[in-house]
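Example 213, ligand adenosine-5'-triphosphate.
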Amino acid sequence: MITLALSKGRIFEDSLPLLKAAGIEVLEDPEKSRKLIIGTTRPDVRVVLVRASDVPTYVQHGGADLGVAGLDVLLEHGDGLYRPLDLRIARCRMSVATRADFDYGHAVRQGSRIRVATKYTQIARQHFAAKGVHVDLIKLYGSMELAPLTGLADAIVDLVSTGSTLKANNLVEVEKVMDISSRLVVNPAALKLKRAPLRALIDAFEQAVEARS
Ligand code: ATP
Ligand code: MG
């Protein structure tokens, strides 16, 4: 049995065409069913539904043989996973945003300490350290946009796709941290034990990604 960890929502939706190209169709719609384990048209392949940020944990510790997770989630999770394949799905960017009346460039040039609220503390720490910018990081779990509006922080580091959420909250994107897309991650032990079927699945995904780009 091969177990693939996916999260509900965009990663599940965007993974369906790749699965289909690999000859696999899921037998249930997670938005309609409460099941957390979903069978597929391949009797030896099943999908487990987990929180997006839990995918690396499932794959690292063998709860799943492979999984799909955003680069943001993987970088926050840290080491311990093979990162073999950029699936080019769930694409967005990690950016710094501030209130329009906050002069980010000035603060950076002055060497001021900047208060940054984010869910992505590892990525933010690495980004500002590389730039030599001093920051006080404030860990949040959601609705980062609120932080600059309430005076909790000067800036946020968050995922942006269209920018409409920032705009709706009078925030401006002042710096791109990195481009983000989802990756197929594989459990190294599973890759040894189930080498042939996993290799075939990874290759099929790879070809599907190639064909789509
Ligand atoms: P949870 O809902 O469990 O807290 P989450 O918010 O990280 O987790 P999703 O919103 O499904 O879950 O996001 C999954 C992944 O999709 C993210 O890790 C990121 O890589 C990517 N992503 C997030 N927002 C966008 C977006 N607006 N456009 C495209 N991709 C995105
Ligand atoms: Mg989300």
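Summary: The first helix runs from residue 10 to 21.
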